[in-house]
C-alpha cells in the first residue's frame, strides 16, 4: 500500500486522467507511481516528456541496456515496483530472464558482456557514491561507448534514481510484471 493514498480519479486534472485511463487499458490497471506523480501534474507531464525522449529511437542508449541498468538502480534503491517494471521492460527488449535475475550478482556472473559490466559499474557508482566516482570509470566506459552514449547513459541513470527513490520512499506497490523481488536486496 502506498504511503500516500491516491485521489479519486475525478480529482486529477483531465490530462492526467487521460494518461491514467490509457495506462489502465495498456496494463489492466493504473500503476501506483502514476497516481502518486499525478498529484503533481506539472512534474508528471515533465516526467512523461523525459520518458518520451529516453524512449525515442534516436536516443543514444538502447532500451535493453537502459532496462538492464535500471534493474540494478532499482535494487540499490529498494524500489520493488521499479525492479518489477524494468525486468519486464528488459525481457520485452529481448533481454533474457537469466540475466534479469542475475543483475545483483553481475560482477561474478559470466552472463554479462564487457559493455554491460561497464554500464552496470557506472550505474552503481552514480547511484551509490557520485561524489567519489572512480576517475578511471569514464575511460572504461569509452572502451564501449561514445561520449554521447555516456552522457545519455548518465542522464538515464539520474532519471532512474529519481524515479526509484520517489517510488520507494512513497511505497509504490509492485504490479507483478516480472517477479524478481527476491533479487532486489542490496548485495
Automatic annotation (TrEMBL):
Q: Could you list the residue ranges that cross the membrane?
A: none
An example molecular function term from Gene Ontology annotations: peroxiredoxin activity
The highest taxon in the source lineage is Bacteria
Family matches, as PANTHER family: 4-CARBOXYMUCONOLACTONE DECARBOXYLASE FAMILY PROTEIN (AFU_ORTHOLOGUE AFUA_6G11590), CYTOPLASMIC PROTEIN
Protein name per its UniProtKB record:
Carboxymuconolactone decarboxylase family protein
Give a Pfam family name. CMD
- Pinpoint the Carboxymuconolactone decarboxylase-like domain residues: 61-125
Q: Which NCBIfam families match?
A: ahpD_dom
InterPro entries per the UniProt record, alphabetical: AhpD-like (IPR029032), AhpD_core (IPR004675), CMD-like (IPR003779)
Amino acid at each position: 500500500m502506498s504511503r500516500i493514498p491516491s485521489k479519486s480519479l475525478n480529482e486529477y486534472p483531465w490530462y492526467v486522467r487521460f494518461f491514467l485511463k490509457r495506462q489502465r487499458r495498456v496494463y489492466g490497471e493504473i500503476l501506483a507511481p502514476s497516481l502518486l506523480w499525478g498529484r503533481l501534474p506539472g512534474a508528471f507531464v515533465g516526467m512523461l516528456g523525459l520518458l518520451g525522449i529516453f524512449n525515442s529511437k534516436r536516443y543514444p542508449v538502447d532500451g535493453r541496456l537502459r532496462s538492464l541498468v535500471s534493474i540494478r538502480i532499482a535494487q540499490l534503491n529498494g524500489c520493488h515496483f521499479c525492479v518489477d517494471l524494468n525486468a519486464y521492460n528488459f525481457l520485452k527488449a529481448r533481454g533474457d530472464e537469466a540475466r534479469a535475475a542475475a543483475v545483483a550478482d553481475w560482477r561474478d556472473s559470466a552472463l554479462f558482456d564487457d559493455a554491460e559490466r561497464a554500464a552496470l559499474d557506472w550505474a552503481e557508482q552514480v547511484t551509490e557514491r557520485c561524489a567519489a566516482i572512480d576517475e578511471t570509470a569514464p575511460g572504461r566506459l569509452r572502451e564501449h561507448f561514445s561520449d554521447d552514449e555516456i552522457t545519455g547513459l548518465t542522464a538515464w541513470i539520474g532519471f532512474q534514481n529519481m524515479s526509484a527513490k520517489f517510488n520507494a520512499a512513497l511505497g509504490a506497490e509492485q504490479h507483478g510484471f516480472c517477479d524478481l523481488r527476491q533479487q532486489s536486496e542490496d548485495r
